[in-house]
Amino acid sequence: MKKEILFVAAGTRGAKLVGGRFQPYVPIHGRTSVEHVLAAATEAESVDRIYVWGDRERLETLLREAVVQGARRGVEVTVLQEKSNFVESFLSTTLLALHQQAGHGVQPWMAGEGLESRHWDLWREFGQDEQLAQIPVNLLVSDTPLIQPAEIDCLVAGKSPHADLVLGRTVRSAIDTVTARIPEPFCYDRAVKNYYTYGSGDQTWDLIVNNFMAGKPLRVPRLIWNLAGHLFNNRTIIEGGRFNLKKIKDNVVFVQSLFSKFHRQEAEGGAAAKKNYYQMLKAFSFLMRAYFIIVKNKDANRKFRDLAILEDRIRTLTRCTVTLLISDASGPALDIDTEYEIEYIDRHFEALRASTPPTVLF
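User: That's the sequence. What structure does it adopt?
Assistant: Structure tokens below.
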């Protein structure tokens, strides 16, 4: 099995407080959630390098055993201090991973607090390297204490090798199958599980976000990173929270700047073609509406997302090939967003882990 890079997000900036603790550091069955995730990651056959970011001093203590066990298996684990937000932590970690993949030593400025001009200069330099551009990076969050090595292998090895960005989703029936063998029924009303319906052709699935993401960062234009950072910084407005005039203004200014000039894309024969303004605006609006539905809708029968249309609109806006990885890997979908979920998983930890081998369904 081909070995790949795995990121584990264990930051406190952007993580939810559950039961008075940030999700990665919630104790479950004698270990914190991030310890369970790292133990599974170091045993996965598809991984040879792991980068985990968060509270570095605390993580170095918690993960000491996992780092040693990983080294014995030939898996290198690097613990990093998180940045000011999730997007910057991901981007700076990606830059470091590619820097090391290219055979360079770590420079002191790379550990800085934010992304500076030198970071972007290095991104552009790496972007000229076709070999680096094909390197995939896989991302797990650390609030999934039930995840198992076989599930990580299923997700890493089962994704499309041609996609620029892969988003993991789990069929809801997979969680129902695992919890059905527990005498105590799992109460969805007391848990936080956003599920919705996706369709492709004549097939439809009720899906749950399974906290897996992958892609080839150097093939993703800077535009999508700007977009991701903007959505992150303005999530209060985007998710329909209290109205903040300054953030509304920022949104308007951002959209104006995004579409103030025609963006260029490569065409056949090396010629350049201008993107159609209307197509980009339509794609942007569609993605915004899709984001609202994913965040707010909990009734799988009320909304429907057509995969073909969604992927076409994303390609129009970003020039990226984005696919969903639909699996029955329940471990990464059984995360800990509420105290009820923590208590339920803790009570039935071993029984919930006794799952059948996962498969990729689409």
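DSSP finds 15 helices and 15 strands in the chain.
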